[in-house]
Structures are given as structure tokens and as C-alpha cells.
Amino acid sequence: MTDPPFTRAVQRALSVVHDAASTADLLFLERWEISPEPGTAAALRVGQLRRANPALAAEIRAEVAARRH
Questions:
Q1: Could you tell me which of 25, 33, 37, 40 has the C-alpha nearest to residue 57?
Q2: Residue 3: how many CB atoms within 10 A of its CB?
Q3: Contact present, 60 and 46 (Cβ < 8 Å)
Q4: Is 49 inside a domain boundary?
Q5: How many domains does the chain have?
Q6: Where in the sequence is the domain holding 28, given as residue range(s)?
Q7: Cβ atoms of 29 and 53 closer than 8 Å
Q8: What is the DSSP string of 1-62?
Q9: Is the pLDDT of residue 50 over 80?
Q10: Is residue 3 part of a domain?
């Protein structure tokens, strides 16, 4: 089983996503924002996800930043 989403932004997004690939992408983006992984492949994937979902990516970053402070 996959770890549950950490942010409310991803929880909301997952409520309308019903396929495994999209779910994996959203969870990957969220985990990256929490703890970025090294490597070109991961950075490219995150870049694509951010471009495809700019508002969601910004919302995730804001939530993660707020929880850190």
C-alpha cells in the first residue's frame, strides 16, 4: 500500500484522480516538495509535474513550508 498524502492539496487532488499513474505522480511531487531527491531523472519528472500542475505545485510548496515553521 502507498503512503497516504501528507498535504490537503494532494488529498483534494486525489479525490478526483482514479488511475494509478496519476496517483503516483501526485504523491511523487508531494514527497519531492517535502524532501527533494538527488538525480536528473527525479528533477526532470518534478519539472514536468510542476509545469502540468502549477497551481497544485505551489499549493503543496506553501503547505509544506507552513508546516516547517
A1: 33
A2: 8
A3: no
A4: yes
A5: 1
A6: 8-68
A7: yes
A8: -PPPPSSHHHHHHHTS--SHHHHHHHHHHHHHHHSPPPSHHHHHHHHHHHHH-HHHHHHHHH
A9: yes
A10: no
Cell matching residue 17: 484522480
pLDDT, tens digit (0-9, with 9 covering 90-100), for 4-48: 899 999 999 999 999 999 999 999 999 999 999 899 999 999 999
What does the alpha-carbon distance between residue 55 and residue 49 come to, in Å, rounded to a whole number? 11
Say if residues 15 and 27 touch (Cβ distance below 8 Å). no
Q: How far apart are CA 69 and CA 66, in angstroms?
A: 5
| Sign, Cα dihedral of 26, 46, 51, 20 | negative
Nearest Cα to 6, choosing from 64, 56, 69?
Answer: 64
